[in-house]
Write a structure and sequence with these properties.
318 residues, alpha+beta, BirA Bifunctional Protein, domain 2, 12 strands, globular
């Protein structure tokens, strides 16, 4: 009897397997040249370790099972960043600055896109212990160089800040994950429908529509930085300082744009966000940003930022 395939999971062999290993080595060599040391976490963790700082947003994508060897409940990782946070807060506690890279399989409870894969070959870096724009800029430079190393054409980094949306919807009855999903959908009609039940001021409604419509660029952020309270202004200033430090272009002619509509992949991000795109690719190639709050949730209060990508998706896109 032939075993039925598992929906969203597949085998890789021959040329596809070789291509993945070649791309993986190219990126890990790039990270090593920048003094990022590779770590290889286990594929399973205790559920609490994966959910710390990410809450139900990551829990919804985590497969949990009972260990037959008696270790209790275990979980297949659906994202490696919480594992890096756990390692930094325990095994590497004595290190004040950590620059770590990783590459391996993750599995999600359901595909992120209809008809997509539940397995990803997640690869990325985490920069811990370097606060503010300096740490964010370093990670963004490596993200840009990674897209170039993979062979993408005309790569772009779009940079935002989760604090902008948080400030706009503070006091709303709708949770933040619903707002991020709405803005990320880039559908003003869907947003208008959702806002019918919300008690938001007209300036806030207009701003949310502009975020969703892709109009919240650097000029928009500069013009509105003082319009929505101290938290909005603080987030806007952090974003503008970073964009000024990075400049409009990185090495290899990678363009950088400020966009208040950039949303996180998971809601453990607590500050700067960025996403990578390239010519001919309709979806984001990578996601990154600052997640200081997750480190605090793991018991070690230290600045942290990073980015990750899925090598299977990169091979398909290239």
């Amino acid at each position: 009897m032939t075993a039925r395939p598992i929906i969203g999971l597949d085998d890789a062999f021959g040329a596809r397997a070789r291509e993945l290993r070649e791309l993986q080595r190219r990126l890990l060599d790039l990270f090593a040249e920048a003094d990022y040391e590779e770590v290889i976490p286990p594929i399973v963790e205790r559920p609490d370790a994966l959910k710390s700082g990410a809450g139900r947003f990551l829990a919804d994508q985590t497969v949990v099972f009972t260990d037959p060897a008696g270790a209790g409940l275990l979980a297949l990782r659906s994202d490696m960043t919480p594992q890096i946070a756990r390692i930094a807060a325990t095994r590497l506690l004595s290190e004040k600055v950590l620059k770590l890279s990783y590459s391996g399989t993750i599995m999600m409870a359901r595909p992120e896109l209809r008809g997509g894969s539940r397995q990803q070959w997640q690869t990325g870096i985490e920069c811990l212990g370097i606060a503010g724009a300096h740490g964010d800029a370093e990670v963004m430079h490596l993200a840009a160089r990674s897209m170039l190393a993979a062979g993408f054409t005309n790569p772009v980094l779009q940079v935002g800040h989760i604090g902008l949306l948080k400030a706009l919807v503070a006091g709303s009855s709708m949770p933040l994950d619903k707002w991020t999903a709405l803005v990320n959908r880039r559908s003003p009609d869907d947003l208008k429908h959702a806002m019918r039940e919300e008690t938001l001021s007209e300036p806030v409604r207009k701003a949310l529509l502009e975020l969703t419509g892709g109009m919240a660029d650097r000029n928009w952020i500069e013009a509105n930085r003082q319009a929505f309270g101290a938290d909005f202004e603080r987030a806007a200033d952090e974003l503008l300082v970073l964009v000024a430090e990075v400049g409009e272009r990185m090495e290899g002619d990678v363009h950088v744009y400020a966009d208040a509509g950039v949303m996180p992949r998971f809601l453990y991000h607590s500050g700067i966000l960025f996403a990578g795109y390239a010519e001919g690719v309709a979806h984001a190639l990578l996601h990154g940003g600052r997640y200081d709050a997750m480190m605090a949730a793991h018991g070690r209060d230290m600045p942290a930022t990073g980015f990750s990508c899925d090598l299977w998706a990169w091979l398909d896109a290239v």
